[in-house]
Amino acid sequence: MFLKKTPGPRTAILPDGSVLTLADLPDPQVRWVASRKAAVVDAVHYGLLSRQEAIRRYGLTEEEFDGWAAAVRRHGRNALKVTQLQKFRQPIVE
């Protein structure tokens, strides 16, 4: 078996004990759902991808990725679900 040499780590161990690999990351052309967004945020948080690499690879804006990361940090993975936007949205301060 031949393993392609890649820069950086190939796996990351998540707090629940599961292993996240580059192969587990979503294809850039698929529809975004909460679990795929969470996988990308976890990959960056645990050092599997750099923030800039994730933004480039998935065609995201910095604000979009930062919004996902902030939502997970504040409210957990459920905050990435479209049906939960109203529940977790920050109040507008005037």
UniProtKB/TrEMBL annotation:
InterPro entries membership: DUF1153, Trp_repressor/repl_initiator, WH-like_DNA-bd_sf
The organism's place on the tree of life at top rank: Bacteria
Annotated protein name in UniProt: DUF1153 domain-containing protein
Gene source species: Paracoccus simplex
Lineage: Bacteria, Pseudomonadati, Pseudomonadota, Alphaproteobacteria, Rhodobacterales
